[in-house]
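does this look right to u?? zinc ion version
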Amino acid sequence: MAPKGALRHTVSGTAVAAWRGAVDLILPPRCLSCGLLIDQQAALCVACWAAMSFVSEPCCSRCGLPFDHDPGHDPHHGAEGGLSCGACLRNDPPFQRARAVLRYDDASRRLVLGFKHADRTEASGTFALWMERVAADLIADCDLIAPVPLHWRRLFLRRYNQAALLSEALAKRSGLPGLPDLLVRRRATPSQGRLSADRRRRNVAGAFAVRPGRRDALRGRRLLLVDGVMTTGATVSACARAALSGGAAAVDVVVLARALRD
Ligand SMILES: [Zn+2]
Ligand SMILES: [Zn+2]
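got this back:
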């Protein structure tokens, strides 16, 4: 007779497979972006996949800006020896490195903001896989993962924090400890939508803090900060400053999509 544990394992494995099959029957897999029926869960259809612009090397060693997007500046060697873009040379960012999976454009906007056509947990599992690839070096160096927080009022309106879902999925994939409540948003900030880079910076300055009960967990550690979309970098920079003044040794950033100026 098989040991009890092994038997239970087999039964639960079969049960999971049956459940998966049942789920496929009820909810046939759909493209994460456009909702087209496809033959695989948590994936993109061929057309949506082809439309996505994945950020690729060579890019700024600090903020991850692809160099084909920074035509005004020849890349220069920054303090750490890597090639930096003009913006990072002029203004040293508070984070050490930032990396993005996708360029934020019409094709990725629907995917990033939607989560509509698929189970959110499944979609964030796919996004975490992509993030793990672009941020492999960052993950290897970091001790903790935490999301950019939403103010409770906005969380209430939206019902979920996308950054928190991504952070949780990446923690699960990478094995790095996740601290979903590490940072708090001290005040609700007006929507960043139409603000200039300078206004965005002032808008979020001092808006974040380390939760007092989490300071010990952060002290001397290297934090990997996760967000859905990075626009000017004002939000992740404000979070990085808060984490550093809360005792973090350094902060790296990974986002699903990044807006690039034309
Ligand atoms: Zn599609
Ligand atoms: Zn840069």
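The radius of gyration is 20 Å. idk if thats expected tbh
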